[in-house]
Specification:
heterodimer, A: alpha/beta, Rossmann fold, 8 helices, 10 strands, about 35% helix, B: mainly alpha, 17 helices
């Protein structure tokens, strides 16, 4: 895949520490439009922390974030959303006591001209988007705590997709899913990629990485081991990077 | 948006012939079964006290216009604060300081309207009560905002901040006037506390009742239009009609009750003399109508219900309660929200202080003593979950009615001693929460 021109997202030299422990240590990665970049590494390698600097959950101690070549400041999730960055968190980040529509529009409610939330309109929109993502979804008027893992995932994905994201961050989107739902997510990722979105995918399953990602960036102990083009390496190469922190000789 | 995991808002109109009539009724009207349970419990308490009076004491005095009117006034102070406590508890916090805020703001208002404002405006100036009441609301809101700031921005647990507040503001209330009671308050201000003159009368109550019915029907119709627009399942027409009839019936019933409670003969005599009425005072029937504190509570309840169900603010309150981390990740400024919620709670405490001191016609530093416990109990009995995320305004008001009914009822059946009342309220609180736990398990 030819990655030329300005990257959609560029994280430059990002560092963040918690109580003296460097969770992310001078890491630089980038992402182009229409590309899926896998982020790999052991638990605690710093993948989620790095990505949270982009989604606005954390503020990096140092480093730059560039969107389309222009430096931006992302201080909170609102800033990230304003840059069309949407995130599907590992925990899904759903308010369990609210229904699907309230979760989908949380923080971006549709309001009537008088400023009151328009529940009917939000439910109608939610029905539309979920019909596309998960045709079996029926439970619109119950709190999401009453939904299955896959249905909850559908709501979280719908939330990220609905608002015309340009940059999508997915933190282990298939971790809690059965095979059928995992397939659904895979197809969705390919579809979104074809639409020109850039996707950061945090993923443990090496087969999913080989199948879905264009490039893979591997982290270990807060540092970047390296970034490789997935079709130029084997899964053993990537596992070697994850486990030994060793970059294969032929890597890009 | 459903706040209780019951009664789907848009129940599909599937074949429900296998259900019994009650279940079908509940399904078609989409009524919250939990609320029905609370209302049922309340009616049983009322009936129980009344029958106990009839059978044991020979006279049932609970279900009389006089007692129900008094009950409504007694509910106002606690109810106003319970609506705010719902928000505090939904967001997984607690406010133990509300009773002391009532005491402190009550004293501030007492001093302001009795010792300060008359000097500048003259005794009995019509603006005194306005300035006093607004000051009370502002002082309460500022105290609440300060508590909220400590909780949200300094990360001190709300239990500790407001426990400290409970002690600090009660002490401060004493110091404002060295423990003296300030009385009487401004005569117009006193009307906010109820009493024969502090009620809106027969005609006023009918106007309120009829406007209320129009509003109920308008809301039902508008909801139907919105559903049709988005092609959601509609309630059957008979269910809509039953809902309208039930709610309007309850409202008109309340009007009839408060209008059936006449002014006492002494007040009528004074009134007749002052207005040059020549008829025998014993034959003049002047209705109380809704008491002003009850109208204040109703206004607060409506405003808070709109706030919680129809605004972003309310949506965020629920979201923070359901999952604070998710709320923050959705871009909600949870700390600023917490500060605003505690400020609102403080303002409602100030409003409660207005009603309480007006009703007492004096400001004392003991005003609102232990009120925080009844406020919390009311919210919890009304279905607000201490685990956060769940609660309704109407539930809190029904909860307040339950607690007040138990207190009043114990007095009326001859157990007026405070110790019996405390025991009964204490048992009721634990029992209500236990039943709620059972209920939630069953519907899961």
């Amino acid at each position: 895949m030819a990655n030329s021109g300005t990257p959609l997202v560029e994280l430059r030299d990002i560092s963040i520490a918690f109580g003296g422990i460097k969770a992310v240590d001078h890491v630089s990665i980038d992402l182009y439009a229409g590309e899926v970049v896998g982020l790999l590494g052991h638990n605690g390698a710093g993948k989620s922390t790095l990505i949270k600097c982009l989604s606005g959950a954390y503020k990096a101690d140092s480093g730059q974030i560039l969107i389309n070549g222009k430096e931006v400041e992302i201080k909170n999730p609102r800033d990230a959303r304003a840059q069309n960055i949407e995130t599907i968190y590992q925990t899904l980040a759903l308010a369990d006591n609210l229904d699907a529509a309230s979760n989908l529009f949380l923080g971006r409610e549709l309001v009537s001209p008088l400023g009151f939330v328009d529940d009917s309109a939000m439910e109608a929109e939610t029905r539309k988007i979920l019909k596309r993502l998960n045709p079996n979804f029926r439970k619109f008027n119950v709190p999401v705590s009453a939904l299955s893992g896959g249905q909850r995932q559908s709501v979280a994905i719908a939330r990220a997709v609905y608002f015309n994201a340009k940059i999508l961050i997915m933190d282990e989107p298939t971790a809690a899913l059965g095979p059928q739902e995992t397939n659904m997510v895979s197809e969705l990722i390919q579809e979104l990629k074809a639409q020109g979105l850039g996707i950061f995918l945090i993923e443990h399953d090496i087969h999913n990485v080989m199948k879905l990602c264009d490039r893979a960036s591997v982290m270990k102990n807060g540092q970047l081991v390296g970034t490789v083009n997935v079709d130029e390496v084997t899964d053993e190469d990537i596992l070697g990077m994850i486990i030994l922190g060793k970059k294969p000789a032929k890597a890009a | 948006m459903t706040t209780t995991p019951t009664a789907p808002q848009h129940a599909p109109q599937v074949n429900d012939a296998h259900l019994n009539p009650l279940a079908r009724f509940i399904r078609a009207t989409e009524l919250d079964t939990r609320m029905l349970g609370m209302v049922g419990a309340l009616l049983m308490i009322w009936l129980g006290f009344h029958l106990y009076g009839v059978l044991v004491n020979g006279n049932g005095v609970f279900l009389t216009p006089r007692n129900l009117w008094n009950l409504s006034v007694q509910t106002a102070v606690t109810g106003i604060m319970a609506t705010g406590m719902v928000l505090v508890i939904i967001t997984r916090n607690i406010d133990l300081s509300v009773g002391s805020i009532v005491g402190f703001t009550g004293m501030v208002m007492g001093i302001l309207q009795v010792n300060i404002l008359p000097q500048y405006l003259g005794l009995g100036h019509p603006m005194i009560w306005v300035i006093t009441a607004i000051t009370g609301l502002i002082v309460g809101a500022l105290i609440g905002a300060f508590h909220g700031w400590l909780i949200a921005y300094r990360a001190i647990p709300s239990f500790i901040v407001t426990l400290g507040g409970l002690l600090v503001w009660r002490g401060a209330a004493f110091l404002t006037a060295d423990g003296k009671t300030i009385s009487p308050v401004d005569p117009t201000f006193a009307l906010l506390g109820g009493g024969p003159y502090g009620a809106i009368g027969s005609t006023g109550s009918w106007i309120v009742g009829i406007l209320g019915c129009i509003a109920i029907i308008w809301i039902l119709m508008r909801a139907r239009v919105a559903r049709r627009k988005h092609q959601f399942a509609l309630r059957p027409m008979w269910a809509e009609a039953t809902l309208a009839a039930l709610t309007c019936g309850a409202l008109i019933g309340a009007v009839l009750v408060v209008n059936a409670y006449p002014w006492p003969i002494g007040i009528v005599k004074t009134y007749a003399a002052a207005n040059g009425l020549t008829a025998d005072p014993a034959t003049i029937f002047i209705s109380h109508g809704f008491a002003i504190p009850v109208m204040i509570l109703a206004a607060v309840a409506i405003a808070m219900t709109i706030l919680m169900t129809r605004t972003r603010f309310g949506r965020y309150v629920f979201a923070i309660g359901g999952n604070p981390e998710a709320a923050a990740l959705a871009g909600i400024n949870t700390r600023w929200m917490t500060l605003k919620i505690f400020s609102l709670m403080g303002m409602l405490s100030g409003l409660a202080a207005v009603v309480a001191s007006a009703r007492l016609n004096s400001a004392t530093n003991a005003l609102g003593d232990l009120e925080e416990l009844y406020v919390i109990a009311s919210a919890v009995v009304g279905g607000t979950s201490l685990a956060g995320g769940v609660g309704t305004i109407y539930g809190a008001i029904i909860g307040t009615l339950v607690i007040q009914s138990l207190q009043t009822g114990m007095v009326l059946i001859g157990y007026g001693d405070g110790s019996y009342r405390k025991i009964v309220v204490g048992i009721a609180l634990v029992l209500a929460v236990y039943l709620d736990i059972l209920y939630r398990k069953k519907i899961k």
